[in-house]
Amino acid sequence: MKRYRHRKRSGFVKICAVTAVPMIIAAASGKNDVTEKNRPAETTLTANDTTEAAASVMSEKVERSGEDMLCGSIILSHGYGIKPEIEQGENFLKLMPPMEMVSDDSGPVPYPTQWGGGGEILRNTFGEYIGDNFFALAEGGQVNNKSDIPNETLLSESWYMPNFTVDSLAEPLVLIYHTHTCESFEPYVRDEFDTDFNFRTTDETKNVVMVGNAIQAELEAQGIGVIHATDIHDHPTYNGAYDRSRETIVPILEEYPSIRVVLDIHRDALGDDAQAYQPFIRVEGKEAAQIMIISGCDDGTMGMPNYMENFHFACTLQQKLEKDHPGFTRPILFDYRCYNQDLTNGSLLIEVGSHGNTLEQVQFAGQLLGKSLGELLTEMSGG
Q1: Residue 19: burial class (beta carbons within 10 Å; 0-12, 13-18, 19+)
Q2: CA distance 334 to 147
Q3: Tens-digit pLDDT profile for residues 62-102
Q4: What does DSSP assign to residue 281?
Q5: Rounded to whole angstroms, how far apart are CA atoms 363 and 13?
Q6: pLDDT tens, position by position, 210-228
Q7: Cα distance between residue 381 and residue 383, in whole Å
Q8: What are phi and psi of 22, to 5 degrees?
Q9: What phi, psi does 357 have (nearest 5°)?
Q10: Using the 8-state DSSP alphabet, how is residue 374 labeled?
């Protein structure tokens, strides 16, 4: 049975009570099966193990980036060093570290408890991108224009505010869902990833549902009504996930006409069988995964004539995020894709980190996104 979460201010009290747990796990800063590699023997690690290991680390892996990352050739989705945690600032909720969360039902594909190696993790922070298809937005961030529409036209469109109004913050205003619900992440910062793990799990404390929960928590802390659909759409069958997620969200939109913003939260997959990128920035001494907004456009065959209205929202949100946390976003991907963005004029797909990012990095990225989005919506409401 489908299940939805609709929590308002009262939910925030519960969050505070449940999640006021000190951050004690190390934190920093795929979608395909992989071939067999030579790897160290598997080990079973717990939260205590990772904390003890962190104390023994003398130096952090060199953070790498290069021209190849900025030219657009490896940055877009085709859609063991450990260091101690640094105490988080006071501007965000204190959420329970994901590795300490225990699911009531981890489902048919539980998150691993043993980890091998075999693949290299490349830590980096993507900066300004170069190339004719990239252009800068006036107040921060960039757009990666993969369409036939001239950059100059899109730049002019980027000045428009979102094509919706915010009448009430308390009514359901934001819908969060996940087409690829099982997408998962690294457990903690390390030099290698386990090439036997395909970065997918039905454990919602270790997949993108956890990221959605972080976004939801920060929105609700600002009094914004949120519905979070946690249905699994990509297991046991991956193909057809967008059709199934559409079946989930259409009834919600019909029941709650107050919804203005619809976010399909994913994670990217940057790298190949041998390497995985871990894009991150630091905010208040804590690492957050970099994110990428995808705003689809129509070539005349997708039934999405109002796609530019979603683009207006994407640009407004991108600039807000960049003003709040410079370097947090990778360029908006503007391409011939639908992703159910025909359903509203405030629909976006957001890639929160990549498979090389850690659970805590993407959780914090979700908080950054939720807090900035909440402030934007509050401003739009005149509040």
Answers
A1: middle
A2: 7
A3: 343 333 434 433 333 433 222 333 344 568 999 999 999 99
A4: E
A5: 19
A6: 999 999 999 999 999 999 9
A7: 5
A8: -60, 145
A9: -75, 160
A10: H
